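Hi there, hope your week has been kind to you so far. No rush at all, and the record is pasted right below.
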Amino acid sequence: MLRIIIVISALLTLLSGCATTPTTTLDTSPNFKPAQAAQAHPLEMYLHSGRLLRSGDMDEAAFWFYAGQLRYRVHLMARPNLPPDQDLALFSSLNSTLGQEVNEYIGGNPSEWEQVIENVLSWDDQTPNDFTPKDKFPSAHREVRAGLLELKEMIHKNHQEIREDRASAGLENR
């Protein structure tokens, strides 16, 4: 958990070079509210997930992690020429740190994991994406959503194997 806090603090220091749109700097808000998600840079959802994780709200943290990941992947796919040392590097760092803790938790119950993904896909369907508009980048949206749906199907087909792998790695099954 301390590693997450250190990484998020360091990332906030580095954010001046990241884009909220392809041309402006990122100004993250510690007061991000889910109602702001339609307009927010996907990083805001990751940071919100980290705050929820630190407060112990693991299920909500998992939801916002996957919502942020979906929206961030769409952003990166829609804008392949972004500098690799900014949004792409930040995305990778967040997935390797925050993602590890969220996935260690949510993977403990494959049925819940599937439900989180289903909820994120439903939320994304119903929530506008002003940051990377669905009508302007339809193929990026379709492709990223299809990838998340594939993950959900893989989890569904492999509940027992997931549980066995976790047990052999010393991870909790809930």
